[in-house]
Amino acid sequence: MKIVLLEPLGISAGYLKTLSETLTEKGHEFISYDSFSTDPDELIRRSEGADVLMIANHPLPAEVIEADENLKFVSVAFVGIDHVDVNACRKRNIGISNTGGYCTDAVAELAVGLALDCLRSIHEGNDAVQSGKGKAGLRGNELAGKTVGIIGTGAIGCRTAELFKAFRCRLIGYNRSKKAEAEALGIELMPLDEVMKQADIISVHTPLTEETKGLISEKEIALMKEGAVLINTARGPVIDTNALADALKNNRIRAGIDVFEKDPPLPADHPLIGADHLVCTPHVGFDTVESIQRRASMAFENVTAWMDGSPVRVML
Q: Which CATH number fits domain 2-102+289-307: 3.30.70.260, 3.10.20.30, 3.40.50.720, 3.40.50.300?
């Protein structure tokens, strides 16, 4: 079979060679590209004759799928598949697998790191030392004993809860359905309003859907305790940015944010630029050496499992 990797996976050439040898040693043809393209004509040229396409997070539009008459399977090195024209795949009975779970530890660890920075002013302490100042005004709070609200108790939410539990935090949460893993961790599920009222730290881990867009609005933020911490490593639009900016400006809460409506660089007039009581990262939650290597390995595993007739991480 002909397998084409349409874009780089962020791994070394040596590691890519090691992974691709699992295919070429079995007699399959493997072609990879070291740059990404969003031009449909270029993608059609690259994918010509491929039985399997491998992509990361750049679009795979219908015209590319329809032009490749041999296409039978798509391996997506990403959790979401909304950048793939699923309807075009469905019409042709083309299978899709993702790499769900590749960044669970990475995102969970950043969520805890952002919370610790908010509580202990780590980045502000660094700024003080570097500018010749002392510790005045930097007295912090302990994480131990705090009530942590997990919004979305999927795999990442539960892993985050597990890490907070190691700090002896009380765990509460909100999810549309009960999850056995969440119950095993001792997460007490309750209505969203109650989580917002009770939690000292709120960590958001919901996917972005029509139902979750704006889930944390001005109303929910107004319910938070004075000085509570809001962490978002999920998707930017889950939280109302303007409402968050107002709460920060009024010194009501603190926040650690990794995700925005669009990835940074942010425009100079973005509501969160210059906000106090805020630590930001530029959507790096998923991005560690370990997670990117794991993602690539899982993407190739998808292909070999599909070829063996036992597909894994099936999305379609």
A: 3.40.50.720
Chain position carrying tokens 């961790």: 185
pLDDT tens digits for range 77-128? 999 898 999 999 999 999 999 999 999 999 999 999 999 999 999 999 999 9
- pLDDT at 162 (0 to 100): 98
pLDDT value at residue 130: 97
Q: Identify the CATH homologous superfamily for domain 104-280.
A: NAD(P)-binding Rossmann-like Domain (3.40.50.720)
DSSP per-residue codes, 148-163: EEEE--SHHHHHHHHH
Residue spans of the domains in the chain: they are 2-102+289-307, 104-280
Topology alike, domains 2-102+289-307 and 104-280? yes
If we measure between CA atoms, which residue out of 154, 17, 92, 136 comes closest to residue 316?
A: 92
Pairwise CA distance, residues 299 & 7, whole Å: 12
Q: What backbone torsions phi and psi does residue 247 show, to the nearest 5 degrees?
A: -65, -35
* Residues contacting residue 42 through CB under 8 Å, at least 6 positions apart: none
Distance CA 226, CA 237 (A): 23
Token pair of 202 as six digits: 């709120």
Q: Which of 262, 311, 300 has the alpha carbon at shortest distance from 282?
A: 262
pLDDT < 70: residue spans in the chain:
none
Q: How far apart are the first and last CA of the chain?
A: 20
- State the pLDDT at residue 284: 97
Give the integer Cα–Cα distance in Å for 192 and 50: 47
**Quick one: angle between helices 289-307 and 104-120, nearest 10?**
160
